[in-house]
Specification:
The complex is a heterodimer of chains A (107) and B (127).
Chain A lengths: L3 E4 L2 E4 L5 E7 L7 E6 L6 E5 L3 E2 L7 E6 L2 E6 L8 E7 L6 E2 L3 E5 L1
Parallel strand pairs in A: 2-11
Antiparallel strand pairs in A: 1-3, 3-8, 4-5, 4-9, 5-6, 7-8, 9-10, 9-11
Chain B lengths: L2 E4 L3 E3 L5 E8 L7 E7 L6 E7 L4 E4 L8 E5 L4 E6 L8 E10 L10 E6 L3 E5 L2
Parallel strand pairs in B: 2-11
Antiparallel strand pairs in B: 1-3, 3-8, 4-5, 4-9, 5-6, 7-8, 9-10, 9-11
The chains are: A mainly beta (107), B mainly beta (127).
Chain lengths: 107, 127
């Protein structure tokens, strides 16, 4: 199985800050990487697919990058509605695997 | 509107069976894989498996193979997650999610992104 490791596991930042989360794959997965946001008590929501493609209707403050084994997810200017947990997910090979999540809080 | 609607919370005893539904609407049901994702209390997301309603082809994570069954009923556009004998460790939130294809699906890979999610079903297994 491909292991996905996110860092940090939790993050506290101020409104307006730029925030970056990283996701490392245990082997080369090309650009087969998606990002999800899970707000408290809600189902996950797709934000980014294939490493850098913004899902329709998702704010352009969110962006993704990387390829191979190292990936990043960034929020350009943190807003209060961005609190929640962010997960990466690889779809290069089965079984599909997720990162352990990064919990984002407002300072 | 494209949506997946799940049933309400379930409380079961160890050893009991359970089948939880995920009702799809607003799109062509037979053309998208639908998967199940487990989230244990305070934990991350785990892919369990998925089914292609068009021909009932299925794939399972090795962690869940043999423990659960995923099936689809085209006549009522509903996908199911089923256990024959629950354990306390099955206590979790279960989400169904539609897989939007990002490539060709084979035995070893099924490229895609989970673009539509159900609201989740909480399953509690306790004696």
């Amino acid at each position: 199985d491909i292991q996905m490791t996110q860092s940090p596991s939790s993050l506290s930042a101020s409104v307006g800050d730029r925030v970056t989360i990283t996701c490392q794959a245990s082997q080369d997965i090309s650009n087969s990487l998606n990002w999800y946001q899970q707000r408290p008590g809600k189902a996950p929501k797709l934000l980014i697919y294939d490493a850098s493609n913004l899902e329709t209707g998702v704010t352009s403050r969110f962006s993704g990058g990387g390829s191979g084994t190292h990936f990043t997810f960034s929020i350009s200017s943190l807003q209060p509605e961005d609190i929640g947990t962010y997960f990466c997910q690889q779809h290069d090979s089965l079984p599909i695997t997720f990162g352990q999540g990064t919990r984002l809080e407002i300072k | 509107e494209v949506q997946l609607v799940q049933s309400g919370a379930e409380v079961k005893r160890p050893g009991e069976s359970l089948k939880i539904p995920c009702k799809a609407s607003g799109y062509s049901f037979t053309e998208y894989w639908i998967g199940w994702v487990r989230q244990m209390p305070g934990r991350g997301l785990e892919w369990m498996g998925f089914v292609y309603p068009g021909d009932s082809d299925d794939r399972y994570s090795p962690s869940f193979q043999g423990r659960v069954t995923i099936s689809a009923d085209k006549s009522i556009t509903t996908v199911y997650l089923q256990w024959s004998s629950l354990k306390a460790s099955d206590t979790a939130m279960y989400y169904c999610a539609r897989l939007r294809p990002l490539g060709y699906c084979s035995d070893g890979a099924c490229p895609g992104a989970f673009d539509i999610w159900g609201q989740g079903t909480v399953v509690t297994v306790s004696s």
